[in-house]
Write a structure and sequence with these properties.
Shape: elongated
Number of strands: 23
CATH superfamily of the largest domain: Efflux pump adaptor protein, beta barrel domain
Number of domains: 4
Mean pLDDT: 82
Radius of gyration: 46 Å
Structural class: alpha+beta
Helix content: 25-40%
Largest sheet: 6 strands, antiparallel
CATH architecture of the largest domain: Beta Barrel
CATH topology of the largest domain: Elongation Factor Tu (Ef-tu), domain 3
Order of helices and strands: HEEEEEEEHHEEEEEHEEEEEEEEEEE
Low-confidence stretches: 22-40, 379-394
Number of helices: 4
Length: 394
C-alpha cells in the first residue's frame, strides 16, 4: 500500500466520523420537538367557527306541507232553458256578487207573460162583477128562499173569481222569475274559471251543465296534517280564548315573507293509517298570494316556550351514546351530551349542560375530539400566530 493510498483512507475515516457527529447533534437537538409531537403538545389547533347558546322565549314551530283550497266553489248552471245571447265576462275575471255573467234569450217567456197579464186583467174584471153581485144580493137575502139562494151563489162566484185571480198572479210571477233567470248573475265574489259555452249555445235546466265556476279567493284555506304527538298542544291552543293559533304559509317557489293566518279546524279523528291529524287554517288573501291547488310550506305556532335553550342546528353531532355538541372553552373543545327537544327554524331546542353564552362549535366540529386544541376561525384560515412548524430529521 502506497503513501497516497494510506492518506486517502485516513481522510475517508475522518469524513465519516465528522458526518456521524453532526447527525447525532441534529438528532439530539430535535428530540424535544419529536417528544412534544408524540404527546400532542405540538399538534396545530383546529380552526372552528362558534356561535353562542341562546336562552329565552322561543315559539314552538310545527312544520308541514300544505295544500291551498278555496272556502267555496260555485258552479254556475242555468235555471231556465234558452239560447245564450251574450257572455258578459272573460275567463279568469274577478267578479262581485250580483254581477251579470250571461244573457239568455227570453222572448218566449216575455210573450207568455203578456198573455198571462191579459188573462189576469180579464179575471180581475170578472171578480169585480161578482163582488158587485154579492153586495146586491146581500141586501135581498132576508126576502125569501130564492133571495137567500141567489146570495149564496153570488158569494161562491166571488170567491171562485178571487181564486182565479190569485192563480193568474202566481203564473205571471213565475214567468217574470223565468225572465229574470235569463240574466245569469254571480252568486258570490270570486274568480271565474274556464267558460266552455259561448253565444249561440242552447242550455237546458234539466241537463245540469255547468256554464262556469266561481272560486272564492279571499279568504282562503290551507289544509295540512301534523303528527299525532302534537294533538295535545294544538287542542290546548284552540281552547285558549280569542283567535286560534298563528299559522304561516309560504309558497314553495317564493322567497318573500310568509302569509299569516289562523288555525280554524281540527279534524275529529286521527288518521290511523298515517298517524296524523288533519287541520285547516284561514288566510286573508288580498292581494292574491295563495292560489287554489298550490302546495305551500306551513308553520303552525301553538304557543311560545318562555325559557328555551337553543343552539344552531349545525352544531348537533350524533355519536354512539346519542347527540352532543362541542363547546369551546379556553381554546379547547369540550364535549357536552344533549337531548334534542325540537327544531325551530335553523336552531335546535335542547336540554343539557349548557348555559347561556356558551360558544358551541358550528363549523369544524367533525375534525375535533374532546380536549382538542381549537382556535376561532378568522377569514376561513387560522391566524399565522397559531401555525406550528416542526423540524424533521434529515
Amino acid at each position: 500500500m502506497g503513501r497516497s493510498t494510506r492518506l486517502f483512507l485516513v481522510v475517508l475515516l475522518l469524513a465519516g466520523a465528522g458526518g456521524g457527529w453532526f447527525w447525532y447533534k441534529e438528532r439530539e437537538a430535535a428530540a424535544p420537538a419529536l417528544a412534544a409531537a408524540r404527546s400532542g403538545g405540538g399538534t396545530p389547533p383546529v380552526a372552528v367557527s362558534t356561535e353562542p347558546v341562546r336562552r329565552g322565549a322561543l315559539p314552538i314551530e310545527i312544520t308541514a306541507n300544505g295544500l291551498v283550497v278555496p272556502e267555496a266553489v260555485v258552479t254556475v248552471r242555468p235555471r231556465v232553458d234558452g239560447q245564450i245571447e251574450q257572455v258578459l265576462v272573460e275567463e279568469g275575471q274577478m267578479v262581485e256578487k250580483g254581477d251579470p255573467l250571461f244573457i239568455l234569450d227570453s222572448r218566449l217567456n216575455q210573450a207568455i207573460l203578456a198573455q198571462q197579464e191579459a188573462q189576469l186583467a180579464r179575471d180581475r174584471a170578472l171578480l169585480q162583477r161578482y163582488q158587485s153581485d154579492l153586495v146586491r144580493y146581500q141586501s135581498l137575502r132576508g126576502e125569501g128562499y130564492t133571495a137567500q139562494q141567489r146570495f149564496e151563489q153570488a158569494q161562491a162566484d166571488a170567491a171562485s173569481a178571487a181564486a182565479v185571480v190569485r192563480a193568474d198572479e202566481a203564473l205571471a210571477s213565475q214567468t217574470r222569475l223565468s225572465i229574470e233567470f235569463a240574466s245569469i248573475r254571480a252568486e258570490m265574489t270570486g274568480r271565474l274559471g274556464a267558460l266552455p259555452l259561448r253565444p249561440g249555445n242552447f242550455v237546458r235546466q234539466a241537463e245540469n251543465v255547468g256554464m262556469a265556476t266561481i272560486t272564492r279567493m279571499d279568504p282562503i284555506l290551507v289544509q295540512f296534517s301534523v303528527p299525532e304527538r302534537w294533538l295535545g298542544e294544538i287542542r290546548a291552543a284552540m281552547a285558549t280564548p280569542g283567535e286560534g293559533p298563528v299559522v304561516r304559509a309560504m309558497p314553495a317557489e317564493s322567497d318573500s315573507a310568509p302569509v299569516e293566518g289562523r288555525l280554524v279546524f281540527v279534524d275529529s279523528a286521527v288518521d290511523t293509517q298515517t298517524g296524523t291529524v288533519a287541520l285547516k287554517a284561514r288566510f286573508a288573501n288580498d292581494p292574491v298570494r295563495l292560489w287554489p291547488g298550490q302546495f305551500v310550506r306551513v308553520t303552525l305556532i301553538p304557543r311560545t316556550e318562555p325559557d328555551a335553550i337553543a343552539v344552531p342546528s349545525a352544531a348537533l353531532q350524533v355519536g354512539q351514546r346519542g347527540r352532543y355538541v362541542f363547546v369551546m372553552q379556553n381554546n379547547q373543545a369540550r364535549r357536552r351530551p344533549i337531548e334534542l327537544v325540537r327544531m325551530s327554524g335553523d336552531r335546535a331546542v335542547v336540554r343539557g349542560e349548557l348555559a347561556e353564552g356558551d360558544r358551541v362549535i358550528v363549523e369544524g366540529a367533525q375534525r375535533v375530539a374532546d380536549g382538542a386544541r381549537v382556535v376561532e376561525r378568522s377569514g376561513g384560515t387560522p391566524p399565522p400566530a397559531q401555525r406550528v412548524s416542526m423540524a424533521t430529521p434529515q
